[in-house]
Design goal:
294 residues; mainly alpha; rod-shaped
Length: 294
């Protein structure tokens, strides 16, 4: 049994065709609802896209905040370890006499490699944003500074800081092995108690300085991650605002579609078509404003 053919082609009713003069202007007017529907659909898509990007930036900010929290935990742990080494050194020096090691032995502890300053390789805008963050500047000022800093600059600065931390840790491994060897030698029976105390004091002093240096590197990394968190939140706010503006533009376009459709069904259409044209113009103008200004 053959199925009846269904005509899905949209056509303007014959009654309306006869009422609407088939001039060039009449053809333009008859297409008004279609054009406004296309505009509304595009604005709805842009609104949805901006909201999706806002949600992505919020999720990215949460991930970066977690990483920043880890770095702040490392910073606090190493500062605490450094303070404990200094406290133990003060107790040792306050309860007994501690002599200095000879120059050769002391060089192992005192000539420890120092970490490179990663901030020297940061761009001026990143350094300015870090300084403002450390000084607890207002959010409006931070937003202005981050607006002048690109995501690529923050990524580059973070890589530089992380590479400096890795390089410093690698440089300490041979020294840590040498210090362990000195401490093992001092624990032998031939070493005097005074020398053992001197080696212990030198080791405590070295560890305190090492933990302080590592803590500063972790602090720099955490600060950069905090800047990235702020930048992601600012980007999310911007996309959220743009989504709302596009949504309002879509509503204006939908109003134009409704009015234009009503105009096609009525005898006197001049006023309604003017309203529809105004709604479509408002929708387009609003979309252009959001794309350029926000």
């Amino acid at each position: 049994m053959a199925l009846p053919k269904i005509n899905l082609k949209a056509e303007v009713p014959h009654e309306i065709k006869t009422e609407l003069a088939q001039t060039q202007w009449g053809k333009v007017l008859s297409l008004t609802p279609v054009v406004l529907t296309v505009i509304s659909t595009l604005l709805a898509g842009l609104s949805s896209s901006e909201m999706t990007r806002a949600q992505y930036d919020r999720a990215l900010a949460a991930q970066r905040q977690s990483k920043a929290g880890d770095q702040w935990s490392f910073f606090q742990a190493k500062k605490l370890r450094g303070a404990m080494q200094r406290s133990a050194l003060d107790v040792l020096r306050g309860t007994t006499e501690v002599s200095e090691l000879d120059a050769a032995a002391l060089a192992v502890f005192r000539d420890a490699p120092k970490p490179a300053d990663p901030a020297a390789k940061f761009s001026p805008s990143v350094r300015a944003a870090l300084d403002a963050q450390e000084n607890s500047r207002p959010d409006a000022e931070m937003a202005t500074l981050l607006g002048k800093t690109s995501e690529a600059e923050l990524d580059t600065a973070l890589r530089v800081a992380q590479d400096a931390a890795i390089a410093f840790d690698a440089a300490q491994k041979p020294l840590a092995a040498a210090i362990d060897e000195r401490e093992h030698e001092s624990s032998e029976g031939s070493s005097t108690a005074a020398r053992r105390r001197a080696v212990t004091a030198a080791r405590l002093d070295y560890l305190a300085r090492r933990y302080d240096a590592e803590a500063r590197l972790n602090q720099t990394i955490a600060g950069l991650l905090e800047l990235q968190v702020r930048a992601s939140n600012l980007s999310a706010d911007r996309h959220h605002r743009r989504s709302g503006r596009f949504f309002y533009g879509m509503l204006a376009g939908q109003v134009g579609v409704i009015v234009a459709t009503l105009a096609l069904a009525m005898q006197r259409r001049n006023l309604l078509w003017a309203i529809a044209a105004c709604a479509g113009t408002i929708a387009l103008g609003f979309a252009a404003y959001v794309l350029v200004a926000l």
